[in-house]
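Justification of resources, computational component.

The compute hours requested in this renewal are based largely on the per-chain cost of generating structure records like the one below. Each record pairs the submitted sequence with a full structure-token output. That output is archived, and it is also reused by downstream analysis tasks.
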Amino acid sequence: MTADTSGSTTPPAGRAARRRSATRTRTRGQKIRRVLLWSLLAVVVALGGGAWWTYSHLNGNIQSVDLDQAIGDNRPQKVVEGAQNVLVIGSDSRAGENSDLDGGSTVAGARSDTTLLIHIPAGRSKATAVSIPRDTLITRPDCKDEKGKTIPGQKRAMMNSVYALAGPACVVNTVEQMSGVRVDHFVEVDFAGFKNLVDALGGVTVKLDKPINGSKGGIKLDAGEHKLNGTDSLKFVRTRKGYADGSDLGRIGLQQKFMTAMLSEIKKQDALGNPARLYKLADAGTKSLTTDSELASLTKLSDFAKSMKGVDPETMETIMLPVAYDKIDPNRVIAAEPNATQLWEALRKDEKIPASAKKSPAKAG
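The structure output for this chain reads:
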């Protein structure tokens, strides 16, 4: 080290150069780290934003109805805690995306094309699905429509007219009053939602023990296995003429067959365990979905679906409400007694359904 005239010391030129080089290296390293850090933050924000958009998007698809507010206090008490009763309503609304499906341009309004009460016992290891024929004559209670207007009750009203008059909450109220069974949740899916859900699955395979001969605008299938896309699946579950005796009772058999096949397909694909598949199904399913307010979020629907994972579709029991042909109008049916009362009592108490409660005097031919 050498001294200058002021008495200060000056490092050798080589050492100063090394310091300048080290400073530049640190500066470059800091810049790289900052770039990597901000890049990482950008990715995290993007992923988080994407997840939030996905959740918000799917949540926004779901419409809901507050059953307690819509129905009031006139509801059956829940008898067995842990058991669940879910009413599934298939609407034939022709609004929006539904207008081009299955003759939509020639049919106005909306009805409950399918009414299905699914009972899941407290153990949640099996389930029973009870179909209520759309042509069943029932006593409709007083209901409020979606605008809050009271619609007086009616005796000998047709089951599928209830939805058209006062919406899904009135369907829930009607089923509760006729059965004495507390409905915990309801799920309504329209034509478009059903079609999109089947297509998101890649189709559903059904097995027929007898052919469907089809009719104008209907579907024609031989006996045996068939993989159906969304459009053909919709025709399948709505088929009446050309199968069995051509009545609504015959159609119920096809609907129950399809429901079991669809649930089996979802389980086979492990849809609940595959995020990409689950999103595709959720997006398709929620677009045309209405539920009670207690299920009206992606989180609540997901939690409920996970709680049902123990239910094996292959062991699901499918029953039609026991009905008899009406003596005044043979084109309509009424609940057959004491069979129907025995069925509702077993579901209400979460007990085994007696064989007599599964027999229907009116058959599908």
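The first helix runs from residue 13 to 61. The longest strand covers residues 112-120.
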